[in-house]
Write a structure and sequence with these properties.
Blueprint: H1 5-20, E1 25-31, H2 35-43, E2 47-58, E3 61-71, H3 72-79
Antiparallel strand pairs: 1-3, 2-3
């Protein structure tokens, strides 16, 4: 843990999605109690859009999930300045 491999992988996935696949939006869902993943996604530029309440069942309980997204324009503004 803490080696930056997850950050690198997410950043490369985003780069590929926008620059090679020409997608306009990437979205994801993450359990609201997954603090490590939430930190990683926010660090990579994802923005929280909302909550899906009781949308998944895990360990005998219904759990909420956050909805996150990143848009191509936002990515380009932060990562490809001057190109």
């Amino acid at each position: 843990y803490g080696k930056g491999i997850g950050t690198f992988a997410v950043q490369e996935m985003i780069r590929h999605a926008f620059l090679n696949l020409n997608l306009n939006r990437v979205e994801l869902y993450v359990l609201t109690d997954n603090e490590r993943a939430i930190h990683l996604y926010e660090k990579c530029g994802f923005v929280r859009e909302g909550v899906k309440r009781s949308c998944t069942y895990k360990n005998g309980k219904f759990k909420d999930m956050f909805i996150y997204s990143i848009l191509k324009n936002d990515y380009l503004e932060k990562n490809v300045q001057g190109n």
